[in-house]
Amino acid sequence: MTTESQDISDVITSAAPDAKTRRYDRQLRLWASTGQARLEEARLLVLSASATSTSILKNLVLPGVGHFTILDDAITSAADAGNNFFLEGPSSIGKPRAQEAVRLLLELNDGVVGEAITDKPISTVVGDLEFLSKYTIVIAHNLPPSQLDTLSKSLWSTASAPILLTVNSSGFLAEIFIQHAPHPIIESHTESLPSLRIYDPFPALLEYSKGLDLDNMDPTVHAHVPYIPILIHARSRLDGIPKTSEEKAAFKKSLLELKKKQDEENFDEAYAQAYRVWAPTPIPSNLTQHIFPHLEDKLAPPVLPPSIHGLLVALKRFTEREPHVLPLSPALPDMKASTESYIHLQRMYKDRFNTDKEVLKSLIPEEAGDIPDDLVDTFIKNAHGVQVVIGEQYGAFDKDPSRIANALEIAPKDLGVHLALQAVREEIEAAGKSGDALARVEREALTKRVLAKLAKGTELSEEIEEAIGEVIRAPVADIPNTAAMLGGMVAQEAIKMITRQYVPQSGYCVVDCIDMRTGVLV
Amino acid sequence: MPSGCPCVSLDASCVSASHSSASVTQSYSLTQAHKPTIMATVAEPNAIVDWPDRYAHIDQILENAGPRTDPAFAAGDEVKGFLRTQAKVLVIGAGGLGCEILANLALTGFKDIHVIDMDTIDVSNLNRQFLFRPKDVGKSKANCAAEFIMKRVPGVVVTPYFGKIQDKDEDYYMQFNLVICGLDSVEARRWMSATLVNMVDPENPESLKPLIDGGTEGFKGQARVILPTITSCYECSLDMLNKQTVFPICTIANTPRLPEHCIEWASVLEWPRIQADKKLDTDDPDHINWLYTKALARAKEFKIEGVTWSLTQGVVKHIIPAIASTNAIIAAACCNEAFKIATTSAAFLNNYFMLIGTEGIYSYTFEHEKRPDCPVCGGEALEMTISADLTLEELIELLQEKQDIQIKKPSLSTADTQLYLQAPPQLEAATRPNLLKKVSELVKGDAAITVTSSTLPFNLTLRIVYN
Are residues A31 and A147 in the same domain? Predict the structure, then answer.
């Protein structure tokens, strides 16, 4: 944004984007420089250099993640060289897999730092919280269950520990899970819009709308009054809010009767938006049910950063005051209007936004410390979409028989895939075949493991049988298309967690590349 | 596979030796791969350089049927032979999706891949088009991508074409088993889909080429399988496209409210007024700068906030946000379908997969239905109710705006009259007077109007009803 005093030619030279902005243009349009900065501060630890792991990394190196480490002591096999794009075919065979992968991944972006750790087995770091804590996110693919268990426990032991993103795949089937501490999202990029305050206009807007002299207006001006003041004006002439469908229909009809000429689109817009007069915009339940009641206990710092906690406390206090609304967002959608009337309306919204902002700032508790003004702005603009995703420990679902029983009813296919994938990882570890690209498993052994996860006496459904059959077909196959798809999905989730923008996946996300569908187990 | 999977005899050392001991593979190198003993005995020069265990992962799928696999699946050498020595696929686009598609196809075992792209590499491609490096900026995407894949995945032959899909004829498209589109242009997709529909000859099963189409925008995307004339085609689903925001000229000229209005004013009205015949090149930073300066001045005059360089570029170039991860998901979905179709190792998608990654990993898989009155694959006439006073010109305008048709520059005729023809110039001039006449005067009763387009292999029959 430029200030009035700036000369235009000065602005031009500083406005044309630099090389980095040009390179990242298509992603900055999604998560902006704030998201990009977080991405560039992030440090990833990836356990194993499998095809799936390098696919994930590719999609994080390209947008410019700060630093990554691949920890893998494997030597590139012939099978690895055939299915991993970040190995150089036969010439990589016999060389340390992580080293080869890091070298080829770094070619994608010279702004990224990467390293390979090849002298430590994965088993030696999964319980080492001091080592793990150097990272923002730990990504694990097809980790043996005992190691995954230790890893998830280490990372669950404190709220400041890294996020765990784990992927389990066999052939066409896969699942993804994210373990994280309560995760606040200010910029959720929700598609729902903030309230325009037509139902409960703030004083300046009400006064302006009431004062409109529609009858004696110049016809051109009349055809350019924005629909917001038209609606508030029309409603102010009624005794109360239209309640019955007859009253609502009559109100809508009265809007069209205000037209001076048939082609006045602003009145057509008012007609189309008339429901806003009787439809309040309640404070989202994400705030009232999931955030406000828990600010003093399970969301208290250090679970939430003090600044975000402070803003949420202030928001709660703000909504407890009359007229029990969120602070006003300055964003005004486009509507049929003259430049003057639109800018005037926009000014009113901005003034109110500034007033609300000062009130909100005065309600921030002292212990929140200094909060930068642009964070307060961002917070108010996105207040209607603010979320805190609570998160849970990896495996909590599997320890709860009622959740499994529920999934058996409502998501039998997804549950089948989940159980079969869990069972195959256990079976392969038990047989000592982890890392063997040709390992096979027996149906009987797998079925036994799946049954052990279900309530006694449960009969295997067709869906579960099918999932078991598919996993037996390709128990350790890390096939290129599934790897690439997981690479995209896990990277999207990592980006959402790191940038703290958009909403991450909750529960197990199950991916079935035969039916080409995804499902969720919660 | 509609064209059948002819069994190819392969030397055992190539494919079936996938369970040889690890010590052999460790000492294996690319130079050895060229020794004739390891080469397959197949005539195709591209079916070489397979080292033992190369396909250990994918072969788990190809050697065993799953519980949901079609009983006709020819597990083992037959299907591997078809995939690795016979199948020939065409990739349209070597951009965000195209780079991913080429890499996936190559790793999956397709050895004969062709790619078409008319674009050159821009620096803003590098955040996702991972086969390109800064030194490649300005070069052909198709050529660069092909070269990279062949270097990285030995034995795969990628044949690039740096040009337009419209340069190629039906004979060219007939040589492929299937076509995968990774495009950002609606126009090109419509052309490709319509061309493949027109190619279908019911007497010749080989003429039916499955089309797999992918598209992304930000965290969202879709992948679909089109069996031309059998399932819904690209044209059938035109109404699913988001309508592009069009700012009315009067708003731009008289009542700007948004920064976008000021930018449109600069590019649509000011540029032609001041620069006269000079063509606006939205890839030229100097041109963007000019527009930005003009837009900013106008915004200041009207007290409108928010004109930035980036917004100016975004508005005039119609930039769609794009990231590597979404492209990876959608390209993988497309290639997974290509693999399933080529191998019958699993049922393929019927027929539409939609992904929304903004809130969790949400997807929706459904069957998009064929439109009986689809101008490309439907065959049934489209009924349109119009006023008896409507002129031919207004009807043409209506056809261009109609969300499910969006036909550009249509020519209209009936069985016995040419109503309006866009070309050649003599006929255009001869039929131009009709534009101002009423449709009801030109077309008697319920006579059918045939609509054709210069930009599409398109043939729509309209039946007019007057209200």
Answer: yes
In this structure, the answer to whether residues A54 and A146 fall within a common structural domain is: yes
| pLDDT at residue B26 tops 80 | no
The helix or strand, by DSSP H or E, that contains position B329, with its residue range, turns out to be helix B324-343
- The answer to whether residue A446 neighbours chain B at the CB level (below 8 Å) is no
Q: In Å, what is the CA distance from B168 to each residue of B161, B163, B173, B212, B220?
A: 10, 9, 7, 19, 31
Q: Are residues A102 and A177 in the same domain?
A: yes
- For the segment B142-164, the average pLDDT, to the nearest whole number, is 98
pLDDT in tens, B184-219: 899 999 999 999 999 999 999 999 999 999 999 999
Active site residues of B: 250
- B29, B309, B331 member nearest A91 (Cβ): B29
- Picking from B68, B361, B363, B366 by the largest number of A CB atoms within 10 A of its own CB, the best residue to mutate is B361
> What pLDDT, in 10s, does the model give residues A371-387?
999 999 999 999 999 99
Both A132 and A251 in one domain: the answer is: no
Residue A234: which domain range?
A: 203-278
Given A256, A278, A300, the domain boundary residue is A278
Interface of A with B in 58-77 (CB under 8 A): 58-60, 62-64, 75, 77
Side-chain half-sphere CA neighbours of B188 within 13 A? 21
Question: Cβ contact (<8 Å) for A505 and B360?
Answer: yes
Which residues in chain A are contacts of B100 at CB distance < 8 A? 484
How do residues A51-68 score in pLDDT, each as one tens digit? Answer: 999 999 999 999 999 999
B328 closest CB neighbour out of A23, A78, A487:
A487
Residues A211 and A262 in one domain: yes
Phi, psi of A336 (to 5 degrees): -60, 115
Q: Is the pLDDT of residue B32 over 50?
A: no
Q: What domains can you pick out in chain B, each with its CATH number?
A: 12-241+321-366 (3.40.50.720), 249-317 (1.10.10.520), 382-466 (3.10.290.20)
Residues 263-302 of A with CB under 8 A from B: none
A14 confidence band (pLDDT: 50, 70, 90) = low
- B458 pLDDT exceeds 90? no
Phi and psi of B76, rounded to 5°? 95, -145
Interface of A with B in 312-341 (CB under 8 A): 334-335, 337-339
Residues 6+ apart with CB under 8 A from A437: A77, A79, A80, A476, A478, B53, B56, B57
H helix intervals, A411-452: 412-430, 443-452
Q: Kindly report whether the global pTM for this prediction surpasses the value 0.90.
A: yes
Number of domains making up chain A: 2
Where does a domain end: A278, A303, A325?
A: A278
If one compares B245 and A194, the residue with the highest pLDDT of the two is: A194
